[in-house]
Amino acid sequence: MNTVLPTGYAAVIAFTALFFLFCGYFLHSNDIPPYWKWMNTISTMTYPYEGLLMNQYQTTSPFDKYHNVSGFQILKALNINTEEAKKWEKVYIMLGWAVLYRILFYVVLRFFSKNQRK
Predict the structure, then answer these.
(1) Is 70 helix (H, G, I), strand (E, B) or coil?
(2) Which keywords annotate this record (predicted)?
């Protein structure tokens, strides 16, 4: 068990870093090269990030008295959809990821674990 745990941590950290790089935070989703678009699609960080921005910035009122910038303008600049239905789509995708991970963890623990009950 001692050798499996650090290996698992390293894999989780590597995948989390990759997902964070391709979620659209550092580089807009539309600016990602076409051969890396698949990484943006499977990134578990893309949907919470875009959903959070949609939830926060879906407003027409300006954010400060000196700059006349609305939330919809910010979302448009980031190439994030402003439809309400798209926000809920992000939530459903996140729930789908949670279900997929649960099933994956069950399969791995059930069929690939060397620890057996006695």
Answers:
(1) strand
(2) Membrane, Transmembrane, Transmembrane helix, Transport
Give me the residue spans of the domains in the chain.
4-111
User: 1: number of CA atoms within 13 Å, CB side?
Assistant: 2
Exposure letters 18-43 (e unless 16+ CB within 10 A, then b): ebbbbbbeeeebeebeeeeeeebeeb
Q: What is the pLDDT of residues 59-112, one digit of tens each?
A: 888 877 888 888 899 899 888 888 888 889 999 999 999 999 999 989 988 888
DSSP state, residue 44: T
**C-alpha dihedral over 43, 44, 49, 55, to 10 degrees?**
130
49 or 5, which is more confident: 49
Two tokens, residue 109: 């623990």
